[in-house]
Amino acid sequence: MVGVDEYAQHKGRVYGTVLVDVETRRPVDLLPDREADTLAAWLAERPGIEIVCRDRAPFFAEGATRGAPQALQVADRWHLWHNLGEAAEKCVYWHRGCLRPTPAQPEEPQEEAEPAASPWPTGHRFAERTRAKHATIHALLAAGHSKRSVTRQLGMTLNTILRFSRAATAEEMFTGQWQSRATRLDDYKPYLDQRWQEGCSNAWKLWEEIREQGYPCGYASVRAYVSRTLRGKPQPVGPRPPSARAVTRWILTHPDALPEGDRLQLKAVLANCPELTALAEHVRSFGHMVAHLQGDQLPTWIEAATSTTELPSLRSFAQHLERDLDAVTAGLTLPWNSGVVEGHVNRIKLLKRQMFGRAGFELLRKRVLLA
User: Fold this and answer.
1) What is the rounded CA–CA span in Å between residue 317 and residue 135?
2) Rg (CA), the chain
3) How far is the C-alpha of 171 from the C-alpha of 165, rounded, in Å?
4) 323-355 burial, b if ≥16 CB within 10 A, otherwise e?
5) Residue of 62, 43, 32 lying closest to 3 (CA atoms)
6) For the ranges 91-105, 172-186, 248-262, which has the lowest average pLDDT?
7) Predicted TM-score (pTM) of this structure
């Protein structure tokens, strides 16, 4: 019985494969990459392997199928539960409008705020610098200095002095400046305003959301719009709704293990959204299969999950399980898992830190196998 998982030689760039004997809990070998061909060749040289514990990575599945066709592949239960959690969080996020509780009493209409006299934001560096220049130039001209004299004193060009002198107020300089230019963010500003009113004040989160909608630019423009424009807008009065991640954590936690406060908040959220109620039922039935090793109920669960059109992420998760049905069923039926392999992956991280990156793969392999 062998467990297979990946480890990082250079995180985000170079990955290898670690193989562990699940019965003795000792590492068997270290491979320099995570390609299906490499794993298949290693398994083909050892025809006595009967069980391969792995996650749902396609290269491990392909390598195990080609290299050890006689072996039973077992999908790791922790990875199955982790993948379900990711799908559930996406479902909660797309139904985030249900997370804000409905007010018990209708809110009184608020008086419309009078528009600010100045279209420039207070405290903005460009605006304040322009105001200071305008005040200085007009003060010198009012004191009797000629425009050319002001040019020499302030170190500006004559055209700049003329433009400031013709403007009665500093706000007139706003016309035609960078503030009125069209940007790629303009099409996404209504969505950003809506999300701000819903309580989302994290600029990075807002940028990730509009990037999924096709926004092609970077984070800096969204951060600038949030800090210069949205920060001055009031947010809704009342308690802040729970985040999608918090609601997902409540759904994934066994009801008996939830604190009373979290249980009441989850009950209020589910009362406002039948889709999230259905999601919670699917998650708990899957958790029951994981905890009690009832893999025979998996086809029924997949059929129920794929029929939920309001939860596309959950439906996609169930369809992916169907593609690897035998391994997932074995993982939800047999007691074997990849926990011991994950422990050795953490051990490899420790050895890498001790070596400070000054040694290559061969030394790392020897330390893993012989230490």
Assistant:
1) 63
2) 31
3) 13
4) ebeebbbbbbeeebbbebbbebeebbeeebeee
5) 43
6) 172-186
7) 0.69
Residue 72 near residue 50 (C-beta atoms within 8 A): yes
Q: Where are the domains of the chain?
A: 2-76+337-370, 80-99+241-331, 125-180, 186-232
**Contact of 54 with 74, CB cutoff 8 Å:** yes
User: Encoding tokens for residue 297?
Assistant: 């109920």
**Average pLDDT for 264-290:** 92
Is CATH 3.30.420.10 what the domain over 2-76+337-370 is classified as, yes or no? Answer: yes
pLDDT tens for each residue of 294-313: 999 999 999 999 988 889 99
The Cα 133–Cα 128 span in angstroms is 9
Give the distance, in angstroms, between the CA of residue 253 and the centroid of all CA atoms in the same chain.
Answer: 20
Q: How far apart are CA 287 and CA 186, in angstroms?
A: 44
Phi, psi of 74 (to 5 degrees): -120, 115
Q: In what order do the strands lie in the sheet with 51-54?
A: 26-31, 14-21, 2-10, 51-54, 72-75
Separation CA 153–CA 197 (nearest Å) = 48
Rounded-to-integer distance, Cα 147 and Cα 318, Å: 75
Note whether 50 and 28 are within 8 A (CB): no
Interval 240-255 mean pLDDT: 89
Contact between residue 63 and residue 36 where contact means Cβ atoms under 8 Å apart: yes
**35 close to 56: Cβ distance less than 8 angstroms:** no
Question: Could you read off the pLDDT of 257-269 as tens digits, one per residue?
Answer: 999 999 998 998 8
pLDDT at 51: 94
CA distance 287 to 332: 10
- Cα 134 to Cα 67, 100, 119: the distances in Å are 78, 47, 16
User: What confidence tens digit (pLDDT) does each residue in 87-138 have?
Assistant: 999 999 888 877 766 554 444 555 554 444 455 555 566 778 888 888 999 9
